Structures are given as structure tokens and as C-alpha cells.
Amino acid sequence: MRILIINGPNLNLLGTREPEIYGKEGFESFLTYLREEYSEVQIDYYQSNVEGEIINKLHEYGFDADGIILNAGAYTHTSIAIGDAIKAISTPVVEVHLSNVFARESYRHESFLTPVCVGCISGFGLKSYKLALESFL
Ligand code: DQA
Fold it and tell me: Among the residues of 6-50, which ranges form H helices?
């Protein structure tokens, strides 16, 4: 099984960015843990702060990977283009968020991605990614 995790804008700063909201752990150490815990799964990882690069990666993996776990960061709430890309591919996408976006500012309550994803996991910190991975197993 091949799964791609995509992190969008500002998530390269995980661990130092607003740690009271997003936690103190960086993504790389969590990824090492995930790869050890799920050694039977090929877990590819991509991070970009650029909307078009995220779309290109969805196109690249979206016809032969088994699943995509996507935290599009703030693009979640603004990007019709990422929503269209998810619609255009055949690989199922699970939307994840570290924070509970529904408990935050109202502009974070809207997502252009949720309607075109198989599901959305929000509010469990890094565990959101683990739960998303479990959903594909
Ligand atoms: C986020 C939530 C978004 O609203 C925010 O813009 C992010 C991170 C999360 O993981 O909680 O960058 O996607």
C-alpha cells in the first residue's frame, strides 16, 4: 500500500509555529514514528507552501497511490483549485487538521475540500494523520 501525506503552507514550521495550537513536535520525527509503526505501508511525504505545487503533487499521485492524506493548511478555506484537483483524481483523499477548525475563527469553518474528500479528521494534533492512515488500512 502506498500513501502520500501532503502538508500545505506553514506546516514546515510545525513544532515552532504557534505551539499552543499546533503542538511542539516537528513533522519529521512524527513521520519517522509513523513509518516505523506502519512499516508495511509505503508512506511518501511532501510539503509545500505553494498552491500550484500541491495541485501538481495531487495529479502526480492521484491515479496510482492508494490514498492521500492532505492538510492543506489555510488553502483549505480558500482554494477552489485544490478542491477541483481532488475531484479530478481517482485516489481517495482524507482531509486532516491538527487543530479543531470548528472551535476556531469562523473563517476556518468553511472548507472547499471536505465535500470532495472521503472524510475529514480535525482536532487530534498529529494523531489526526495517524487516524487518517488507519482509515485507509
Ligand atoms: C490547519 C488549520 C488551518 O485553519 C490553518 O490555516 C493551518 C493549519 C490545522 O492543521 O489545524 O495552517 O490546517
Answer: 19-22, 27-37
> Please, what are the domains in the chain?
2-136 (3.40.50.9100)
- Which pTM value belongs to this model? 0.97
To the query of whether residue 77 is one of the catalytic residues in this protein, the response is: no
pLDDT tens per residue, range 29-82: 999 999 999 999 999 999 999 999 999 999 999 999 999 999 999 999 999 999
SS3 helix, strand, coil % of the chain, rounded to 5? 45, 20, 35
Q: Please work out whether the CB of residue 108 comes within 6 Å of at least one atom of ligand 1.
A: yes
Please check whether residue 27 is in contact with residue 14, taking contact to mean a CB–CB distance below 8 angstroms: yes
Which one is catalytic: 46, 61, 97, 129? 97
Q: How far does residue 63's CA lie from ligand 1's centre (Å)?
A: 26
Q: Which three cell numbers stand for residue 69?
A: 492524506
